[in-house]
Design goal:
5% strand; Leucine-rich repeat, LRR (right-handed beta-alpha superhelix); 322 residues; six-stranded mixed sheet; 5 helices
Length: 322
């Protein structure tokens, strides 16, 4: 159905009452009603209102509210904010349950829930509302029923919160354990990395030491080889230069002697001795032999003289000692 516009809400207000019944409303004019806080009694009966907007709960000045004969299927969750509400008529709607905050309507004295498809527990608490007394009893018993639901809801909520806190605590414990494991793993990795770098450093230092040692040995070897080469260059050529003329002279004399001896032997022992070439050679050899014999006699006489002299000297020495 189309919603007729409320052109002038002032025409609907008389004193502290706002009569919006039979206006074919599907929505409640909350903004307009909030402009008239003195209108504490509002009649919205006999309309086509399906639900109340959340903003409706801001009309805390309401004392009496008539929503009978509408199409309400639910009430806003914050209905308990209407702390000044004393009279509430919900007759002939389509309500099955009431919001939990309904228990906060501590000023409520009168309530009518007839002709609503209420759930059994709520229907039993509401009872009939055929007169003033029953409607007051309905308000009292429904409030008690809703308070019990509120307490149960609070316990369930507290239990849920405790469970959530416990889960959060366990989650935090697991998180801390995971962080501790990660810290230990990072610490272990750092230690392993440090140990690996230390080994690499030691290996490098050892390799450098070996290279330095080899280099030192090589330099010493080169130095020794250089000194030996210098000695060979400086000493050997001089020695060789000093020995070379004497060696050549000795070799020449040896060769000459061997040559003369060979020629003499050939002229003396072979058939060449009759040759004219060998005659002077043989004569020279004979002369040499004769000279050698004479010199041999002289040497023997000299030796005998020396022996006699030595004997006389020895005898005189012994005599002097005696």
């Amino acid at each position: 159905m189309s919603k007729p516009k409320v052109l002038n809400l002032k025409d609907k207000i008389s004193g502290n009452e706002a009569d919006l019944s039979l206006c074919n409303l599907s929505d409640v004019p909350v903004r307009e009603l909030s402009l008239f806080p003195k209108a504490t009694v509002v009649d919205l009966s006999c309309n086509n209102i399906i639900s109340l907007p959340p903003e409706f709960c801001s009309l805390i000045h309401l004392v009496k509210l008539d929503l009978s004969k509408n199409q309400l299927t639910c009430l806003p969750d914050d209905l308990g904010n209407l702390v000044n509400l004393q009279h509430l008529d919900l007759y002939n709607n389509k309500l099955m349950v009431l919001p939990v905050s309904f228990s906060q309507l501590r000023s409520l004295k009168w309530l009518d829930l007839k002709d609503n498809p209420l759930e059994p527990g709520l229907a039993k608490a509401a009872g009939d509302c055929l007169d003033e007394k029953q409607c007051k009893q309905c308000a009292s018993k429904v409030l008690q029923h809703m308070r019990a639901i509120q307490e149960e809801y609070d316990r369930a909520r507290e239990k849920r919160l405790l469970k959530e806190k416990e889960l959060e605590r366990k989650k935090e414990v697991k998180q801390k354990e995971r962080e501790a494991r990660e810290r230990e793993a990072r610490k272990r990795e750092k230690a392993e990395e440090k140990e690996r770098r230390r080994k690499e450093y030691n290996t490098q230092m050892a390799a450098l030491a070996v290279q330095e040692k080899q280099k030192k040995k090589s330099e010493e070897k080169k130095k020794k080889n250089g000194q030996a080469a210098n000695k060979k260059v400086d000493v050997k050529p001089a020695a060789k230069s000093q020995r070379s003329p004497i060696g050549w002279i000795f070799k020449l004399l040896l060769l000459l002697t061997l040559g003369i001896a060979g020629v003499a032997a050939a002229c003396r022992l072979t058939d060449l001795q009759r040759e004219e070439v060998c005659v002077p050679i043989n004569a020279a050899v004979d002369g040499c032999l004769s000279w050698a014999k004479v010199q041999g006699g002289v040497v023997r006489q000299l030796l005998r003289n020396l022996s006699s002299t030595a004997k006389d000297l020895l005898e005189s020495t012994q005599t002097s000692k005696n």
